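re: that chain from earlier
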Amino acid sequence: MTGLWILVGLLIGIAVGILIAHTILKKQLTKAGREALKKAEEDGELLKKEKILQAKEKFLQLKTEYEKSVNERNQQLAAAENRIKQKESALGQKMEEVNRKTAENATLKENLNKQMQATAQKQKELAEQTSIQKAKLESIAELTSEQAKEQLIELMKDEAKADAMVMIKDIVDEAKNTANLEAKKVVVNALQRTGVEAALENTVSVFNIENDEIKGRIIGREGRNIRTLENLTGVDVIIDDSPDAILLSSFDPVRREIARLSLQKLVSDGRIHPARIEEVVAKTKKQIEQEIAELGKRTCIDLGINNMPHELMRMVGKMRYRSSYGQNLLQHAKEVANLSATMAAELGLNPKLARRAGLLHDIGKVPDTEPELPHALFGARLAEQYKERPEIVNAIGAHHDEMEMNTLIAPIVQVCDAISGARPGARREVVEAYMKRLNDLENLALTYPGVVKTYAIQAGRELRVIVGAEKVSDAEVNQISLDLSKKIQNEMTYPGQIKITVIRETRSVNYAR
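^ sequence. v structure.
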C-alpha cells in the first residue's frame, strides 16, 4: 500500500509541474507558441488522464491481491485453530481413558492381593491337614510314607512288566495300522496316477546288415576302416561269424549310439574310407549333442518344469543314454519326478518343487568328468552351482542319506526313488548278490534264541521266522519281531522294505488206532 501512495504522489507532482511550466511558458511565447502550447496542453491532459487511469487500475489490482492474501491467511488460521481444538478434544478423551484404566488397574491389583492372601491361607491349612492325615495313616499302617512307597513300587513293578508288553503290542499295532493305511494311500495314489515304463540297456548294441559282404568293406584294407572307426568313437567293433550282424561294445551308451548311427550312414552312403568315416563321426557327434539338448528340453516341457538352466537340461537329456542296474536313467528320473509330484500333492506340499527335485535327483550320474564324490553329493553340488533352490539341493544330496534332510521334499524324493527302483521288473540284480542277500537275511534271524526255522520269501521282501512254542512266549514274539526289524535296517542293504513275520504255534498230535 505504501508503494501505491508513493506512485500517486509522483503522478500528482508531475501534473503540478506541468501546470506551472504551462503558466510560465504562456506568458513568454508568441501566438504560434501559444498554439503549440495549447496542443501540448491537450497532449499533457490526455497523458495525465491515461496515467491516472493506469494508477487507479494498479491500485485496484494491488488492493484485490492484498484482500485475497488476507482471506487465505484467515482461512489457514481458522483451519489450524480447528485442528488444534480437535487435538485438544482427543487428548482430553485419552486422558480420561488413562485415568479410568488406572483406577481399574488399582482395583484389580487390590483384588489380586486379597486373592493371593486367601490362597496362601488355604495352602497353609491344606498343609496342616495333610500332615495330620499322614500321621494318622502312618499310625494305622505302622509304616512310614517312604516304606509305603517302596512297598507300592515293588508291588507295581511286576504288574507293570506284565502290562508293558501288552501295551507295547497294542501301541505298535495301532501305529502300524494307522501309518500303513496312510502310507499305502499316498503310495497307491501316486502309482495309480503315474505311468510306468521299463527300458533295459546293455553294454552291447547290435547293428544289422543286409549281407556279409558289407563286413569286408567296414573292415577295409588291412583293417584301416575299422581301426579309424574304433579310434574316433571309442567303441569296440566286433565282427565275427554272426550272420548279418555287427556287435558294438562299450560301457558308454552315447559312444555306442554314435558308432551305430555312423555305421548306418556309412553303409547307406556306400562310401567307406577313413576320411569319410571321420567326417560322418564328427557330424554324428554333433547330431547326438543336439538330440541330447532337445531331449532334455522336451522332457522339461513335458513335466511342466520351467527356467531350467541349459546345462542341466543337457544333462537331463544325457540320462537317456545311461542306465542304473539295468534301468534307463531318464525313465527312472521321470518316474521319480511324477511320483514325487503326486505324493507332494497328496501331502499338501508344492508339487512343482517336488517334480523338479525328482527329475534332478540322479543328475550326478551323468557328469562330463568323473568326480570323486558320490553321485548324490556331486549332483547337489551341480544343482547349487546352477543356482537351484536350497530345497532341491538338499533333496538331491540326501536321497541316499549322504546329507542331512532339512526339508519335507527330501524324504519324498528318497521314498519315490526307492519305489521306482524296487518296482518288479525295473532293475536287474546279479544272481550271486541276490542269493547272498537272502542267505544273510535268513542267517541273521537264526541268531536269536528260540528261533527254529527262517524262510526268505517274496524275492527277499518278506522274512518268516518260526520260533519254538516251549522257548518263546507270546509276549516275546513281538519283541523278537521289533528287534529283528531294527537289526536288519542297521546291518543290511536292500531295496524297498522287508516284512518280518514271527510265527509261534502249539500243536497237539494224537493217533486213533
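The longest helix spans residues 31-141.
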